[in-house]
Amino acid sequence: MNHPSTPSDGKDSSAAASNLYDTLSQFMFTSFASLRSLALHTEDQPRQHQQQPGVLALLETLYRTALLYLDETLDHIALVLLIYSLLCIVLYRLLFRAGSGNALSGRWWLLRRSRIPSCQRALLVTAHPDDEVMFFGPTILELRRRQCRVFVLCLSEGNHEGQGDVRRQELWDACESMGVRPEDITLVDATHLQDDPAAEWKTVTIANQILRQIESLDVQLLITFDKDGVSGHPNHCAIYYATASLCLSGLIPNTCKVLTLETVNLCRKYLSLFDLPVTLLLSTNW
Ligand SMILES: [Zn+2]
Q1: CA of 137 to the centre of ligand 1 (A)
Q2: How many Å lie between the centroid of ligand 1 and the Cα of residue 105?
Q3: Is there a domain that residue 206 lies in?
Q4: How many CB atoms lie within 10 A of CB 112?
Q5: 244: Cβ contacts below 8 Å, ≥ 6 apart
Q6: What does the record give as EC number (predicted)?
């Protein structure tokens, strides 16, 4: 049996076809998008897995390189320290160890380079007993070795801790062991020049003491602290400023030269013979 088709039937069938087409298109688009997303996702995973080991490998390489350089640097530092130590020992043996021809020629070279003038009478000005041996011991010994008569002017008894009498005797004992005559030691015990870091030592007072000694003893060399006083003690520094004032005012005779002991930093102070090359290079007395 044939059923005649009506116009409304044609419209329904075309609308249904259109809906089916839309549904299929949407399904295909969604599926394609899902597949693409899945593909992208599956492509990203191995790339992340590949990047992570790459970064780790780079870091490991950097770490190994740094260790290698550090190891080489430490080797170089150790080598430099070894060479420097050997240099110091050789210099010390050449310049200061007596008893061999090399030592004597080295000592002669050292003295020739030194600006310590040759003199017959020298005055050492210190602030406290023990300054003379702690800071100026080698200078006194060298002057005595040159047959120079050394006078010591100590401006206080060193009674800051109530040990004045003991330190007074130590001053005489130390000077005697270095070849300074007992009668060449002058110890000042004045109320305005007491051993005290907080006490202000007047420049004029110290200058008068020093000038009196220079003129009465007729010395050709005056030795004392520099402006930093070696240990930074204010009493040491005060002596330098008094000496400087005498120099600036022209009161020190032309026949008398003035030397000050150069203050070095704490590290160099306790390096002993390992400071020798630095001293030879940097000292202003060379
Ligand atoms: Zn002192």
Answers
A1: 13
A2: 35
A3: yes
A4: 7
A5: 227
A6: 3.5.1.89
